[in-house]
Amino acid sequence: MNLSHAFRSVVDNAKSFGATAALHDLQQRAVNRVMPFQILKGMTALLSDINPGLLDSGTFRAGFLARRDVLAHAVPEFELTPEFAEEAMDKGDECFALFDGDRLASFGWYSNQPTHIADGLVLHYDPSWVYMYKGFTHPDYRGKRLHGIGMSLALKSYTERGSRGLISYVKSNNFQSLRSIERMGYRVFGEIYMARVLGRAVTWASPTCRPYGFRLESVAARTSLSALS
After folding, report:
1. Strand-pair partners of 201
2. What is the pTM of this model?
3. End-to-end CA, the chain
4. β-strands 94-100, 61-64: how paired?
5. What is the pLDDT of residues 8-50, one digit of tens each?
6. I need a labelling partner for 55 at 20 to 30 A (CA). Which of 28, 128, 144, 158 fits?
7. C-alpha separations of 42 from 29, 81, 200 in Å
8. Which residues, in sequence order, are bridge partners of residue 195?
């Protein structure tokens, strides 16, 4: 860990998010010098909690993409690969997008099935919720709240289909994202702790994750301590 960079990060976090946030980030950095470790904040969004202003896409065209349209945009510019897109769609996941005319501006992926997140770990959750992941806004359109608008419109559509709402997570030290999505209407319900010990993934979900079926499992070893909570 670069001490100069760490110090700047602590100072910046203290200025922007307060001393508690800065201390938490410092603790995360310290633990990660010993072993890979993260805390994921589980959260849900209900249509009734969403800022109504985010349900208006203005001049942007919004909707779910057909397979051919997804594959047409599976290029580095949008941080998508054809392999990822095919696998996600074969699993039944959907892509909700915003267009500026014919130009793709922002999108997010949605699933109601267990979803691989990283390093051989699969996120499980109650399928009555829809998991939102891999949100992307093109650099030319950032700062226009398109990520929040896209999520809110997708939430409206899924609620109308009978889903309870959206479920997702944010890393506990990603303070900017936490602030942004809480303003949007998300509510934190619990935490998942994840670490790698001697190369093996170990996870633990807080008791408040149980009603949501929210947990991580290792693809290879099925290692999960959530049952011990």
Report:
1. 196
2. 0.82
3. 32
4. antiparallel
5. 666 665 666 666 656 666 666 665 676 677 899 999 999 999 9
6. 128
7. 21, 27, 23
8. 37, 202
Take residue 28 and report the two structure tokens written for it.
């995360």
DSSP string for residues in 156-217: HHHHHHT--EEEEEEETT-HHHHHHHHHHT-EEEEEEEEEEETTEEEEEE-GGGGGGT-EEE
DSSP secondary structure string, 140-154? GGTTS-HHHHHHHHH
Per-domain residue ranges of the chain:
1-34, 36-66+93-228
For residues 212-227, average pLDDT: 65
The pLDDT > 90 percentage for the chain reads 65
- CATH code, 36-66+93-228: 3.40.630
Whole-angstrom distance, CA of residue 99 vs CA of residue 117: 26
> Do residues 123 and 223 lie in contact, with contact meaning Cβ atoms separated by under 8 Å?
no
pLDDT of residue 8: 67
